[in-house]
C-alpha cells in the first residue's frame, strides 16, 4: 500500500485568474509582501499492493490523461511512503 | 438531416439545441451520454451546460462518457460535430480541437448579446454565412477564455481555422477567438450560443440560425 501525490499546476504562461483573486484578497486581510499566487490541485492516490515501476508509470498515465490537461497544466508525481516520509520521484 | 444532440448530466442547452436544429429544418435526435449509440444520426451537437458538474476541469469527465467513444470515432471519420460552450470544452478535452478554455480573465460569469465576425465559411457549420459577416448571438460563460500556445494560434490563423472572432474581447480569449474548426472542417467548437438566437421571439434575433442551416447546405451540395 502506498500513497502517491499528483500536483497539478497551471503552466507558467497560462493566466491563473483564481490565483490572481487570492493575491488580491491577501492585502485586504492585512497579509502583505506576497507578490504572486498560483493556484493548482493536489490529488492523493491510494495504490493497492506494491508500488512497482509499472504502477508508477500508470499513475503518470493517469496524471496525463485525466488529472491534468497538458495543454494548460503541468503535473508532478511524488510518492509518500506509508510511514509518512516523502521521497522524490 | 438527422442531428443528434447529446445530453450529459448537467447539460443545460440540449432542449434549445434540439429546437434550433428543428427550426433549421432538420430532425433532432436526443442522444444519451451513457449509450454507446449514435442512433444513425448524420451529425452530432454537444450542447452547453455544466456536464458532470464541471468537476476536475470543464469537459474533462464528459470526454470519457460512453457516447464520446462513438462521437470521437465519427468525428475522425468526417461526421459534422458542433460543440457549443461546454461542448467546445469537451471537444478540446477530447483533442478533436486544439487549445483549451480557461476562466474568464475578469473572473466574472458573462451573459450578454455578443457580436462576432465570421472568418471561415467553408466549415460544415458556417457555410451559410459570408466571410466578414457580423452576427450577434448570446454569450454566457464563466470559463470561455480560449488559450493555446503561439505556435498553435499561428497555425490556426494560417490555415483559416478561426471560424469566428469576437468584436471586442469579452473573456480574455487569445486573439479574441470565439470559435475554431479542425483541419477537415467538420468539427467546430464555438463558445457563444447560436441556438439561443434562432427565433425573433426571444434572444437577440435570428443570426444564430446559419450555424444549423449550414449543415443542410453542405449536404445538398455534396
Describe the structure.
The complex is a heterodimer of chains A (89) and B (222). With 89 residues, chain A is an alpha+beta fold. Chain A has a single domain, classed as 2-Layer Sandwich (Mth169, Chain: A). Chain A has helices at residues 17-28, 53-67; strands at 2-10, 41-47, 73-80, 86-87. The relative contact order of chain A is 0.31. Chain A is elongated and about 50 Å long. Chain A has a 4-stranded antiparallel sheet. The longest helix of chain A is centred in the C-terminal third of the chain and has 15 residues, at 53-67. Chain A has 2 helices and 4 strands, in the order E-H-E-H-E-E. Chain B is of the alpha/beta class and 222 residues long. In chain B, the strands form 2 sheets. A 9-stranded mixed sheet of chain B has the order 2-1-3-4-11-10-9-6-7, sandwiched between helices. Chain B has a two-stranded antiparallel ribbon with strand order 5-8. In chain B, strand 3, helix 2 (66-76) and strand 4 (81-84) form a beta-alpha-beta unit. Chain B has helices spanning 14-23, 66-76, 86-93, 150-158, 209-221; strands at residues 2-7, 27-32, 43-46, 81-84, 100-102, 110-118, 134-141, 145-147, 162-166, 177-181, 187-190. Chain B has one domain: Class I glutamine amidotransferase (GATase) domain (Rossmann fold), CATH 3.40.50. Chains A and B meet through helix 1 of A and loops of B.
Amino acid at each position: 500500500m502506498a500513497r502517491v501525490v499528483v500536483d497539478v499546476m497551471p503552466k507558467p504562461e497560462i493566466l491563473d485568474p483564481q490565483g490572481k483573486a487570492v493575491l488580491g484578497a491577501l492585502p485586504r486581510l492585512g497579509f502583505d509582501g506576497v507578490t504572486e499566487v498560483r493556484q493548482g490541485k493536489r490529488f492523493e492516490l491510494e495504490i493497492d499492493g506494491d508500488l512497482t515501476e509499472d504502477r508508477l508509470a500508470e499513475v503518470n498515465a493517469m496524471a496525463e490523461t485525466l488529472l491534468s490537461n497538458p495543454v494548460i497544466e503541468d503535473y508532478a508525481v511524488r510518492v509518500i511512503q506509508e510511514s509518512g516520509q516523502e521521497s522524490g520521484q | 438531416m438527422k442531428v443528434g444532440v447529446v445530453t450529459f448530466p448537467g447539460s443545460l442547452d440540449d432542449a434549445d439545441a434540439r429546437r434550433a436544429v428543428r427550426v433549421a429544418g432538420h430532425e433532432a435526435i436526443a442522444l444519451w451520454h451513457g449509450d454507446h449509440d449514435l442512433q444513425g444520426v448524420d451529425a452530432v451537437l454537444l450542447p452547453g451546460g455544466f456536464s458532470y458538474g464541471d468537476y476536475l476541469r470543464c469537459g474533462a469527465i464528459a470526454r470519457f462518457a460512453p457516447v464520446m467513444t462513438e462521437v470521437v470515432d465519427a468525428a475522425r471519420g468526417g461526421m459534422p460535430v458542433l460543440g457549443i460552450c461546454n461542448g467546445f470544452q469537451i471537444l478540446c478535452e477530447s483533442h478533436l480541437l486544439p487549445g483549451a478554455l480557461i476562466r474568464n480573465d475578469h473572473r466574472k460569469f458573462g451573459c450578454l448579446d455578443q457580436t462576432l465576425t465570421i472568418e471561415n465559411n467553408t466549415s460544415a457549420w458556417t457555410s451559410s454565412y459570408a466571410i466578414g459577416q457580423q452576427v450577434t448571438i448570446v454569450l454566457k460563460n464563466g470559463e470561455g477564455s480560449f488559450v493555446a500556445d503561439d505556435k498553435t494560434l499561428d497555425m490556426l490563423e494560417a490555415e483559416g481555422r478561426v471560424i469566428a472572432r469576437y468584436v471586442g474581447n469579452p473573456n480574455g480569449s487569445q486573439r479574441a477567438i470565439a470559435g475554431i474548426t479542425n483541419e477537415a472542417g467538420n468539427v467546430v467548437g464555438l463558445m457563444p450560443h447560436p441556438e439561443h438566437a434562432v427565433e425573433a421571439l426571444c434572444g437577440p434575433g435570428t443570426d444564430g440560425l446559419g450555424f444549423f442551416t449550414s449543415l443542410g447546405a453542405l449536404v445538398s451540395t455534396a
